[in-house]
Each structure stands twice: as C-alpha cells, then as structure tokens.
Amino acid sequence: MRISIFTPLISKIDYMINRILCFFVACFLIQSCVPGFDKDFEGVDMDLSQSEYQAAFKLQDEQKIDSLYALLQSDNPTLAYIAAQAFASIQEKKTIDSVAAQLNNIYPGVRGMSAFALGQIGSESAEDYLIEAFKNKDTLDTDNIVNSRILEAVGKCGGENMLKALSTISTYRNTDTLLLLGQVRGIYRYGLRGMTIPAGTKRMVDIVTDNTFPSEVRLMAAHYLARVKDIDINDYKFRLVKFFTADPDPNIRMAIAKAMSKVPDGEIHSYLLNQLTIEGDYRVMINILRSLESFPYIKSIEPVIKLLSHKNIHVAEAAAQFLVASGNGSDASFYRTLISDSLHYSVNNKLYEAVLKNIPFYFTNTRKKIKEEILAKAKDSISIAEKVGLIRALSHEPRAYTELKEFAFESKDKAVSTTCIEAIHGLLVSPHFIKTHKGKHLFKRKEIADILIDVFKKGDSGMSAVAADMIIDPETKLKDIITEVSYLIEARNNLSLPREIETYNKIQEAISLLKGEEFNAKKVTFNNPIDWSRLEGISDTTMFVIQTNKGSISLKPFANAAPGTVANFIKLAEADFYDNKIFHRVVPNFVIQGGCPRGDGYGSLDYTIRSEFAPLYYNDEGYIGMASAGPHTEGTQFFITHSPTPHLDGRYTIFGKVTDGMDVVHDIFPGDNITNVIIKK
C-alpha cells in the first residue's frame, strides 16, 4: 500500500528535476543574452490611445470575467496580454483552466503574463499546468523569460514536492540570469508561504556568497535569508558575515545584516558592532541595529548609545528603538537622563518609550511623573508628528488610558486622536497591565471596553478601526467582556462606502468574532472608471514631480503597466489634491507614505481604484506604489521605497520609479509636507 501511494509522488519529483536539468543542458549549448520586457518580446503594442485596449482595461476594472475569457483567446496579442494581466489582479481560482490554456499561446508575452497570473492566483491546482509549459528543449531567449516566470509562479502556488525540485537545481550557469532569477524568486516565494527545506536555504547561501552571480539574483537570495522565518543558517554564518563586511553593494549588505539576527553568536556580534562603526550607508546601519536586538544587550548598549546623536535622524531613532526593544529595568532610569533638547524630538520620544516599557511597574511615582511630563509636552507641542510620538510612548503606561481617551476626544487632529486609541490598545496588552492593576485588572479592562463604546458612537473612521482591532486582538481579552454588538453594527452602518471600506471590514470582523460567525470581508464593487483623458500626451519622457519642503522628487510613471493608477494620480495632482498633505508614515529603511486626507492613514476619497498587478518588482530603492487595505481598495495614498522590498511584489501596485531626488526621499520625516505635484507630459 505504501509503495502504491508514494511511488507516483517520487516519480513526479524526478520528472520535474529531469525536465529542468534537461532544459539547462539545452541552454548550455546556446549563448543567451538578457532581453528586456519590450514590445518585441511581448508581442504586444500597448498603445493606450486605442479604444479597444481601453475597453479591455475597463473589463478588468469591472471584473467581467466572462468577457475577459473571450479576450484571452483573441488573435490580437495585446488584448490577450491585457486579459491575462487582468486575471493576475482579479485572482479568482475559477479562472485557472482558462488562463492556463494560454501557456501555449504563440506569443511569448501572453505566455509569460499567463504564468504570472497563475502564480498570483496562488492555487496549487495550477502547478501541473506550469510544469507542463516549462520548455525543456533548445529555445529562444524569449522562452527563457517565460520559463523564469514559470519558476517564480511555482514558488507562489506549488506544493512541497516541487520545492525540492526547485531547490536542487545547481546546473544553471552564472550567466543564465533569467533562469536563476526564476529559481531564486520561486524559492523566496515558497519561503514567504512558510515552506522551506535545507536544500533551498543552502542554494540561496551559495548564490549570495558567490559574487560571480548576477547582482539581482544575489539580492533575491539575500532577501530570502533576511525575511524567511524558521530557516537555519548557523552553518553558514561565517561565510555570510565575510561577504556582509566586504560586499560593495549596500542592498546586499542590508539584507545580510538583517539575516544575522538569526545567528546570535558572539563572534557574529563582534562583526556587526565593528561594521556599525565603519558603515557608510544609513540603511545598513539601521538593519544592524535591528539585528542587535537578538544579541546580548550588555555588549551592545555602549556603541548604541553613541548613535543617539547621529547626524542621520533615522539612525538615531533606530538606536533609541533598540532601547525600547532590548532595554532592561535596571537601566531605565539612565534612559531618562539621556533625554535632551540637543536630541531630535523623535529620539527623545523613543527614549520616553524605552523608560516606560522597561522601568518596573512598581515605580509608581516615577511612572506618574513621566506620564504627566509626556502629556504636558504633547499638549504644548505645535508639531503633530511630535505629539504622535509622545502619545505612542504612553502605550507602555497602564494607568494612562483615561487621559488618552480625553486627549483623543479633545484633539482636532485625526492623527492624534487615532494614535491615542492605538496607545490604549498597546497599554492593554502590555505585560505591565495586570501587574499594575493586580486584582482590579478585570475592572480596568471593562473600563477600557466602555471607552471603545464611546469611540464607536463618535463614529470617527480611524479611531473606530483601531477600536475594532482591539476587540479582534486575542491578547486584549475583550471578547470575553463585550457582549453587546448593537453599537458596533450601528457604527458600521453609518460608514461611507467605499471610502471607509477598511474600517467597515475591521468592524465587521469584530462583530463576527463576538457573534461566533465566520467573517467574510466586504468586497469593493466597481465605482470609478479610468479617466483616459488624463493619459493623453503621456510618453516615455513624462515625469511626475513631487515638490516637498525638503526638495523635489521626480518619478517616471509606468502607464502601460498600471494605467488606471497613473490616471488617478494625474487626476489628483491636477486637482491640487496632494497640496499640503503630509507624509504621515515613515518607516526607516522601508517606505515614506503620504496622500492621506486625514493624516492618520485611514483617509481616502469617495471612490476606490482597482489593483493593477504586473510582473514588476520592488528590487531597488525609489519605487512608488499604492497603499491599500487589501485588493482593489486603493485610492489616494502612495508610498516610495527606501530600499529593495521584494516581499511587496505582486501585492501592491507599482506605478512608477524615482529618477531624481532619492536624497529627498531618504530625508523625509513624518510631518513633512507635499507642497505640490506637477505632471510634466
């Protein structure tokens, strides 16, 4: 019986390995270059002024699947290509058979986009189709691009057996960039799905530590080591740290620095501390500081303290964050002495947070004085960003929930009010909460539940979303206290859709939890057609210029890949929507985010646009993408990346890239203003 079950399984694995190895042998016999994804390869001519192409994108917007099926079989490769990309964004499992049929399309562009779409759908039922479509004979360079897409797609939807096949390919030449990219992206995608094997990790280490491989291939391998959880790299730690300290590419150094958090070895710690003193890229320094949280605090504290006054504010803030994450009670009073007018306010705010998180709960008088000091500063400050940072510090003070409620309801600034409720959430799940309130902690929890009722009655979108999150979070234990859902239902029904779809779904999830029902998120229906007139005059020389109080950022839009998103951005810019909006969110060495009319991340306008997922990659700094609360909920908020962020690939629409002004992007801080956005056609 066991033989009859497992023999076909083994045969299938061997079959895939043999097919891929045979393909390599065939590729070895020809010299390949690395073609771009141009119109000659794609077999398409994406002229967005053509009405038939606009009509095709409208079908994607309206998600008219049956009509898209017909387009997918069109003799016009551009229409078939648009339809395949539509299915990559719609992501319906029922479309797999129809999309897979186009893996045999005569046009490589359609084949490649169909493979991408199958990966985006993410169902294991697409696996056999992808394997069958892999070319295992002498082939053109364009087929290598399709094969690369296939290998990546297998990583998004394949089963464990195919992971073994993908991980054990070691016969690609170092010049087979496309095939290597497909392999590393596939293994990386498996890792993000929580599927790893030692052979895959070894393959990624071998690639990262061999600088004869193409840099873009090594980058993906490095990000696998940095981001994928529960992988064992202990046997490779010295190989990795050697390349970390010597590699000239800061993008590689960033990723390996983050990976080092997985090997808390004393010698590795010494390498990290030494690199911290000589590193010239602030982003690498930030990742080192984050990795140091996994190493002994006592051996890190001295060099970290010195960085609190670093000239780069992001580095200084990351040093203070180390104290929040890794500090201890015996040094908490010392952290308070570090607070100084000579430091940037964001560093001081983090120091307050470090004090309150680490100081013993029984230092009642000291904690009370710090709380009052923070509240006084928050009330006096004219900077919204400073107020927000101070309020966040109070998320570690269990006695502050009454004052935070008052601050939230009195403030006229949405960001301040929303942050107050976030801070109440934080203090409720703080390890200090029960210790501080002792036998009264259940009563105190009930008082916080009553605050949430007032929040829902107030009807503010941002505050209500956070309040719903508090109910959903099992650590708050509010599910055991809240029995009445009528005020939640009323708050949900009073929301304006689709503008407040994120809050709507958060509240609905809380209602479903309290009622013991399955939660099904409400989907946004088609509500905003693409304004094609906005794209008239768009060309390869078109630029978006975001003018800020720190300088200008110039971006090249990707209209062919994301026409609806680009048209929407142009419409907002030409209506002066972005004027005087702030960058409300800055995560050092990740993104800057702006375009929220509320300033707290929960704002939008009375419409949404569709997600537009294309085979584009966040493999460098400076990509501009749309923020969202799930597929097809985009509106006005956008972000720009500080560094490669491949975990965002296929999840957030990419619609442009910075060509000039990355120094400004790196210099942006929360509260900085967009003064104007200019469209230069």
Tell me the CATH topology of the domain at 2-232: Leucine-rich Repeat Variant
CATH superfamily of the domain at 2-232: Leucine-rich Repeat Variant
Let me know the number of strands.
8
Structural class: alpha+beta
Give the name of the CATH architecture of the domain at 2-232.
Alpha Horseshoe
Strand content: 5-15%
Shape: globular
Backbone CA Rg: 26 Å
Kindly report the average pLDDT value: 93
- Oligomeric state: single chain
Poorly predicted regions are 1-13, 20-40
So what's the CATH class of the domain at 2-232? Mainly Alpha
DSSP summary: helix tally: 32
What tags apply to this protein structure?
681 residues, alpha+beta, Leucine-rich Repeat Variant, Cyclophilin, eight-stranded antiparallel beta barrel, 32 helices, 7% strand
